[in-house]
Amino acid sequence: MDKPALSDRARRRAEKYGRKRMAAMRGETVPLTVPGWIRFTIRAIGILALLIVFVPLHYLYRIFAYGSPFPMLFLRYTARVVGAKVHRIGTPLRRDVFFVSNHLSWIDILCSLNRTVFVKRENRMGVAEQINALKEALQDNWSVTVFPEGTVTDGQSILPFKSSMLSVLEPPPSGVLVQPVVMDYGAVAEEISWIGEESGLHNATRVMARPGTFRLDIHFLDPFSPEDHRGRKAIAAQARTQIVERLEEVLGKPLRDYQHTVEAIRYRPPASTEKT
Questions:
Q1: Which of 21, 37, 65, 68 is the most buried (most CB within 10 A)?
Q2: What are the Cα distances from residue 116, in Å, to 45, 64, 145, 195, 241?
Q3: 25 in a structural domain
Q4: What Rg, from alpha-carbon coordinates, does the chain have?
């Protein structure tokens, strides 16, 4: 059955946001409209209010017990404030789990599970410290999340996985499972994603100024035992295979080559797809 044609208004709006996204990707400043500034201000005030509420509660809780739930609650409600309507698909493990996820936006971190340590491979000078943090988290039965692409992408691509952070699974701690995760922003993925030359501050401002809400589906895929795979590279390959298969299923088409140079991880796209 054919999809209904877009109305002229919807088409114009899509074209406008497409032009803004392309300008932001090139590192250009995209000016906000008056309604955009109003939306940004309201959301910024909302985040400040959440900080005022949850920070004192967190430190008060820490006086009596370990493992405060308030950082997780702050991140969850902040995601809602910036416009994310999160839907979980599949069952996330709660402990003794090593989540391996694709990565599009700073919003991914807001939608985290409780007691999750986020590590990005971009910090080359701190790799040893990051690995130690992962080891300590696993020893304490925390859930751990890594973004093995080492950077953010556009929701239409998956970069090669870098397995350095998975060295904590050589050998794997007793009882720990790996659970691949797919972050799917649907039709707004490329608009939300933080790619190209855009600064983090500009991306946050642009996303918080956009109208309405957007859906974020978090797919928790079938977990597997790292003991069934020989080393971190094999573990990374298995997780990536599952993530690619699910993302292609969601998109209804094969993934494309990532179209932007990322010097931090020494990635350059094929010459035919690189955007200037």
A1: 21
A2: 26, 21, 6, 24, 23
A3: yes
A4: 20
pLDDT digits (tens, 9 = 90+) for 170-202: 888 888 899 999 999 998 998 898 888 888 898
Q: Low-confidence residues of the chain, pLDDT below 50? A: 1-4, 6, 121-122, 125, 274-276
User: pLDDT tens for residues 119-133?
Assistant: 554 455 456 666 777
How many structural domains compose the chain?
1
**Domain limits for position 195:** 8-31+82-265
**Going edge to edge, which strands form the sheet with 97-101?**
84-89, 214-220, 177-184, 97-101, 143-147, 116-120
Helices 200-209 and 34-64 meet at what angle, rounded to 10? 110
Q: CA 169, CA 178: separation in Å to the nearest integer? A: 9
Residues 6 or more apart whose Cβ sits within 8 Å of residue 29: 202
Is 276 inside any structural domain? no
What tokens appear for 190 in the block?
């490329």
* pLDDT tens by residue, 6-36: 466 655 655 566 677 777 777 788 888 999 9
- Range 265-270, long-range pairs (CB < 8 A, 24+ positions): 265/121, 265/122, 265/149, 265/150, 265/151, 265/159, 265/162, 267/151, 267/159, 267/160
d(CA 84, CA 23): 23
Q: Does 59 map to a domain?
A: no
Give dist(CA 161, CA 117) in Å, integer: 18
